[in-house]
């Protein structure tokens, strides 16, 4: 509340009565700072029934009031100048406003701001963990940067993102996820100093401001400690949970002198940490800005690619080893950009998965592949890859059913390939979808078999029609006996379970002879057929006309 306009000392009984009954606590002081008048509200607030006659410092001391900023009020009295000061009064916070009077002396008013400040603090606090929220973090970072700027001291901002947290939320529910977040927040508090600021920005994102420390050594030590500490096992409601954390670090002033730049650059470093395997930390580097700009440009182009009909499919033959005949094709997605040229699937497919475009792109690929296969003269199979993201929406079975109905393709000719990554997030849910697809008559293949940790356990849970042996094992057979043993074991496993086995990435005759000897049933690779356009694949299945004797004459 602003100070009162300078009133004259009470001159009439009615004016004195009005001052006494004011709802605003009011003291009047003479030029020496001695209380000459206190209204009822002031006496009640200060818990002093008779303040008149006491010097202001003595009155404040008697009622236990203290100025956190120091002796601002006594100094203002000596200088006869207006001032505002915040007082602590027991468990209350009071704002005092001192104003010199034109007739001499001072008026001192008070306002209880406890609830106002408490509300402002809560507005900057994240309710689940009690940490700062995004607004609070920004305010504290602005203040820390201003302080660091005065002393030219370095400051670090660490951005954190939990690894594998989504799986906990999806499988065990939000109450367990919330309890886990509270435990993570407690570990972050214990890993940091009392002067550090720890914030939760939402979801499983956290941030830390580390000031007053030698940099970059202190930030690196903290990041390393966080990766270790957060990654240790949690026990929540009887569940043993394991999550990790990725950390991005930005330093001021080298990486930015304002809050927005530092947070953005720490976020870029976090993105790099997650891209390079998670469970680690990375410091911001200027090149990350250029890389992020390139990624955003690619994302913009990718969002338009489907509408602009820039996608195409290539078809790679799958050969039956026993007969040497083409028994199917794998449909491979290609992106031909008018300016970039061919864009590697290894570059754009992970991006499409990350930003959610893979569902629409995958449906287009499925429909296009089935339409092509439906027109072939031979009933060869068509294999289409599925992304783990396509299993999350709950519409995959319905989509496949509609595509088969629209294209007229026999379901038995469609093979849907999945990797272990599709099964990792929510195995039971994915298995339900696979069983729904199997009920349509579709065949299911496990791609890149042998590269995951749980591939064998999944064979017990779901009867795949085919196992595709990862090309890394096939290519390693010529110089590595262990790779040969793995291929042999997978081929025998497939045979014992009644599953076909396709060796991928065959490029040499030696590799072909080796996988034939190990008992694989099919082969796919550059040696037996490179990816080709749809028309060429169709022609490969069309029998060549037999020359008549007259033609031969």
Give a description of the structure.
This protein is α/β, with parallel strands linked by helices. It is 44% helix and 23% strand. The chain has an eight-stranded mixed barrel with strand order 14-15-17-18-19-20-21-22, surrounded by four helices. Strands 2-1-6-5-4-3 form a six-stranded antiparallel sheet, sandwiched between helices. A hairpin with a 5-residue loop joins strand 14 (311-320) and strand 15 (326-337). The longest helix is centred in the middle third of the chain and has 19 residues, at 287-305. The N and C termini lie far apart (113 Å).
Spell out the blueprint of helices and strands:
Layout: H1 13-20, E1 26-29, E2 35-38, H2 40-46, H3 56-62, E3 65-66, H4 72-79, E4 83-89, E5 92-100, E6 106-112, H5 114-123, H6 134-151, E7 155-163, H7 165-172, H8 174-191, E8 197-202, E9 205-211, H9 217-230, E10 234-236, E11 239-241, E12 244-252, H10 259-275, E13 281-283, H11 287-305, E14 311-320, E15 326-337, E16 341-343, H12 345-354, H13 358-374, E17 381-385, H14 396-407, E18 414-418, H15 420-424, H16 427-439, E19 443-449, H17 455-461, E20 466-469, H18 471-475, H19 481-496, E21 500-504, H20 509-518, E22 522-524, H21 534-541, H22 549-552
Parallel strand pairs: 12-13, 15-17, 17-18, 18-19, 19-20, 20-21, 21-22
Antiparallel strand pairs: 1-2, 1-6, 3-4, 4-5, 5-6, 7-9, 7-12, 8-9, 10-11, 14-15, 14-22, 15-16
Helix pairs in contact: 7-8, 8-9, 13-14, 14-16
Summarize the structure.
The strands form four sheets. This protein has an eight-stranded mixed barrel, surrounded by four helices.
């Amino acid at each position: 509340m602003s100070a009162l306009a300078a009133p004259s000392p009470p001159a009439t009984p009615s004016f004195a009565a009005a001052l006494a009954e004011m709802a605003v606590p009011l003291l009047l002081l003479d030029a020496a700072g001695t209380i000459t008048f206190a209204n009822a509200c002031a006496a009640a607030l200060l818990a002093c029934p008779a303040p008149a006659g006491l010097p202001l410092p003595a009155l404040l001391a008697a009622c236990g009031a203290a100025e956190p900023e120091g002796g601002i009020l006594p100094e203002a009295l000596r200088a006869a100048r207006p001032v505002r000061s915040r007082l602590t009064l027991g468990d209350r916070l009071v704002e005092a406003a001192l104003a010199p009077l034109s007739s001499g002396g001072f008026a001192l008013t008070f306002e209880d701001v406890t609830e106002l400040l408490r509300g402002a603090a809560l507005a900057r606090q994240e309710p689940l963990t009690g940490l700062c929220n995004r607004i609070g973090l920004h305010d504290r970072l602005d203040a820390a940067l201003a302080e660091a700027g005065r002393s030219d001291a370095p400051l670090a901002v660490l951005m954190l993102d939990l690894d594998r947290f989504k799986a906990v939320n999806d499988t065990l529910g939000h109450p367990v996820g919330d309890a886990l977040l509270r435990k993570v927040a407690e570990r972050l508090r214990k890993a940091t100093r009392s002067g550090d600021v720890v914030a939760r920005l939402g979801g499983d994102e956290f941030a830390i401001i580390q000031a007053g420390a030698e940099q970059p050594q202190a930030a690196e030590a903290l990041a390393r400690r966080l990766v270790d500490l957060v990654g240790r096992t949690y026990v929540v409601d009887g569940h043993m949970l394991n999550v990790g954390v990725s950390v991005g670090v930005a330093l001021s002033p080298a990486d930015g002198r304002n809050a927005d730049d530092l947070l953005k650059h720490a976020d870029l470093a976090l993105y790099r940490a997650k891209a390079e395997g998670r469970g680690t930390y990375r410091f911001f580097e200027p090149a990350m800005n250029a890389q992020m700009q390139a990624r955003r440009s690619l994302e913009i182009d990718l969002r338009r690619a489907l509408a602009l009909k820039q996608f195409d499919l290539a078809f790679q033959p799958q050969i039956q080893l026993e007969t040497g005949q083409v028994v199917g094709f794998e449909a491979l997605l290609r992106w031909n950009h008018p300016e970039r040229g061919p864009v590697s699937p290894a570059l754009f497919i992970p991006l499409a998965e990350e930003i959610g475009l893979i569902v629409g792109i995958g449906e287009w690929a499925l429909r296009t592949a089935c339409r092509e296969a439906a027109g072939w003269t031979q009933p060869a199979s068509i294999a289409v890859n599925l992304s783990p993201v396509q299993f999350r929406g709950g519409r995959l079975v319905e989509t496949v059913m509609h595509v088969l109905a629209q294209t007229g393709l026999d379901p038995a000719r469609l093979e849907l390939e999945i990797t272990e990554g599709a099964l990792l997030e929510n195995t039971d849910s994915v298995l339900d979808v696979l069983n729904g697809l199997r009920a349509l008559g579709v065949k299911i293949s496990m791609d890149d078999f042998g590269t995951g940790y749980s591939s064998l356990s999944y064979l017990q849970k779901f009867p795949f029609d085919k196992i595709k042996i990862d090309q890394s094992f096939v290519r390693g057979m010529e110089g590595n006996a262990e790779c040969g043993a793995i291929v042999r074991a997978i081929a025998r496993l497939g045979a014992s379970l009644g599953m076909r086995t396709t060796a991928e990435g065959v490029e040499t005759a030696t590799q072909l002879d080796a996988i034939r000897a190990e008992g694989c049933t099919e082969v796919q690779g550059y040696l037996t057929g490179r990816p080709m356009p749809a028309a060429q694949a169709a022609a490969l299945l069309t029998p060549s006309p037999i020359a008549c004797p007259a033609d031969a004459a």
